[in-house]
Input
Amino acid sequence: MSASNQGYAEEAPALLKRYEEIAFEEAHGGVLDRIPRGPLRVLEIGAGSGRDAAWFAARGDVVLAVEPTREMREGGRQLHPSPAIEWLDDGLPALAKVRARGERFDLIWISAMWMHLDADERGAGMATLAALLAAPGAVMMSLRHGPVPEGRRMFAVTGEETIALAARHRLSCTLSETRDSPRAPGVAWTALWFVRSENRGGQDEG
Output
């Protein structure tokens, strides 16, 4: 098990229930108007309970749901047994199994996962995302800020740092919005939306 998903296996039953209690629209209301009409080829990284993957599948998209924690992956598969969702054991920063497939994706969806990566992992991970993104395409990230739950591995990651890192790989931020969590005092979330930049001055994708 990677250090980035530390603590999730032990808490999987409770986490699966908690994630399913929050509607997709509540969790991602700030970016709903950014999601293109489908059908899309969606890559969700850190798919958790499958709630978000199921939302995309229900509207006709095809989803590759990447989840490195077996207990979460199998729980999500049981909760959302859609033929439009394929589950895969893989993870950032390398996403080696995903990259080996030779596919590119219209939308890369990363909810509440990026802050589990350390600085080196975030640098390598952003190159991986750029390499997997179709043109045109978009990347959504949500970043958690606040106290770290006991037993988890999280880092203080800002929207500004993430936007600058993405720009190095020709991904331009078109939305950065931070909101306090209505369910967890002291916690805030930043939603980021990236699109492929026309600026050719950045680094080449991995």
